[in-house]
Amino acid sequence: MARKRKSYNEKAPYLVKKARTTKDRPICPICKKCLNKDFCNNRKNLKLMNKCSDCHNCSDKAHCDKFYITEQYSVTINVGVDEETGDVIRKKFTGSTYNEAIYKSEQFKKDNPGGLKSKPNKEKINPMTIEAISLEFMEKKNNSGLNNDNTYRTYSEILNRLKRNSGAWFDKPINQIKRAEIEDFLNLEREKGYAQNTLKKDYQMLKQAFGIAFERKFITEDFFVGYYGIKMPKSLVKEEKVTSFSYEDFKKLLEYLYSPDFKYSHRDEYLIAIHCGLRIGEVLGLTKKDVDFEKGILHIKRTATNDKEGHAILGIRTKTPSGERDIVLNELTEPVLIHAIEHMKPNENDLLFPNPNGNVYTDSALNSCLKRICAKIGIVDNAHNHKLRHSYSTNIYSAGTDYKVMEQTLGHSDIRMTLDRYTDLPLEIQKKELQKYVDRVKMELGDSINKYTKEEKSSKP
User: Fold this and answer.
1) Given 3-state DSSP classes, what are the helix, strand and coil percentages for the chain, each rounded to the nearest 5?
2) How many Cα atoms within 13 Å fall on the side-chain side of residue 68?
3) What is the pTM of this model?
4) Which of 202, 201, 221 is nearest to 211 (CA)?
């Protein structure tokens, strides 16, 4: 007697892992004991975590702080025959129980009594579109550690903006896009009043995609290369340079931070940023071990950053390689750090400044608080976290600090960055320095210039 063939292709229950959106659990026991966290970039790369045998096979959903873990069942059935190829069309159905998967498959057969006549077209991004080329390149750099998750998220936002603003040409294969379509798009963004920084990011994303496409022989001409290549447009909006607080505002802010009437959070964070010139992310990434009172040094090893979904996380390195540095402690910074350590809340990462859940604060949380503080004390100038770093740079320059010390403290690879972008020259310093030239000329010319200046003064109306 012939054995009856099963109509269902059953699959044993398997684990499904979906990334958690909230970070409200302590580190799981398996990850805590792991001696090879470099494999998954210290648990920052969820794809690599899922490839780890210990993590992939783990079903301890009660303790997992990275994934929602569920068990699923699946069945695969024949749902028709392709009229063109004659191939059998099969479809998989899943459920939290075997019966649920069966029910879904039966419901599908009921909804499609004649069966499918052709295979459903799965929507796929054409591998030759700007989006596909850019995503592949971004993933490669992210997986190799050349870019972190925060940079990946930033690039994704640029790509999404291009897609929103471009129109139909963005979804065409790159070899079918016309030069005029790119030029019209960039000009339109310019006319919309986009800032120069936004135009630059969009232009560079497009230029990168065409460069890769040309290198891989997807296209025969790169519109962005050569004397007649597409150039970056100039914004119609005047670019606002980030400046430091004025001397009066800076003094007012410091006086309030040291005042017993201070009623806000984050006083220690702001004071460390002001007196050490740290980026606010570097302040939020400080741990108790980074403070060495014996040697009088503050170690800057990492920064707070964001993952691909935009959630605040503790990074494993500084923003740039030159950002990893040691800051010399002094009589202004030591008391602040002592106070911070005495009042720090216990947390998994031993952070000096954890949020109420024991995790990393967001940059925006401190930014909003700083704006409220400045509004209260009458500082009308636009206040934000990075202004504290600019003010530090301006003040140590005004105090006559050696350029090399400034460069090392601020974590720049080139002193030109320190002086050109981060240092504003106060009017008083300009007058003082230019007076040196006046005094030298007067010393060289002596009586002749003195006589002339006296005559000019006497003839003044």
Assistant:
1) 50, 10, 40
2) 6
3) 0.60
4) 221
Structure tokens at 59: 């079903």
Residue closest to 187 by CA, chosen among 205, 207, 204, 166? 166
For the ranges 152-161, 199-208, 319-328, which has the lowest average pLDDT? 319-328
Residue whose entry in the numeric block shows the structure tokens 């096979």 = 57
259 CB neighbour count, 10 Å cutoff: 11
The pair of three-digit structure tokens given for residue 24, joined into one six-digit string:
């409200």
Whether 195 and 322 map to the same domain: the answer is no
Between CA 289 and CA 330 the distance in angstroms is 18
- Residue range 26-44: mean pLDDT, rounded: 79
In 10 A of CB 449, how many CB atoms? 14
Residue 420, phi then psi, degrees to nearest 5: -75, -40
DSSP state of 349: T
Q: Are residues 73 and 147 in the same domain?
A: no
407 and 345 fall within a common domain: yes
Q: What is the DSSP string of 274-307?
A: HHH---HHHHHT-BGGGEETTTTEEEE---EEE-
What angle do helix axes 247-257 and 267-276 make, rounded to 10 degrees?
140
93: three-class secondary structure by DSSP: strand
Q: CA-to-CA distance for 247 and 426, rounded, in angstroms?
A: 8
Mean pLDDT of the region 334-363: 91
CA distance 366 to 266: 7
Task: Examine the domain organization and report whether 43 and 95 are in the same domain.
Answer: yes
Give the pLDDT score at 3.
43
Q: Where does 285-395 show beta strands of DSSP type E?
A: 291-292, 297-300, 304-306, 312-314, 325-328
Say if residue 415 is in the same domain as residue 436. Answer: no
Q: How far apart are CA 218 and CA 176, in angstroms?
A: 10
- Which two structure tokens, joined as six digits, stand for 29? 């026991």
For residues 292 and 210, membership in a common domain is answered with no
Q: Is 221 contained in some domain?
A: no
- 8 A C-beta contact, residue 13 and residue 73: yes
Indicate if 274 and 356 belong to the same structural domain: yes
- For residue 413 the two structure tokens come to 């690879």
Q: What is the DSSP letter of 413?
A: S
**Residue 84 and residue 78: Cα distance in Å, rounded?**
17
**What is the extent of the structural domain holding 437?**
430-461
**Do residue 273 and residue 408 come from a single domain?**
yes
Please report, as a single letter, which amino acid is at residue 76.
T
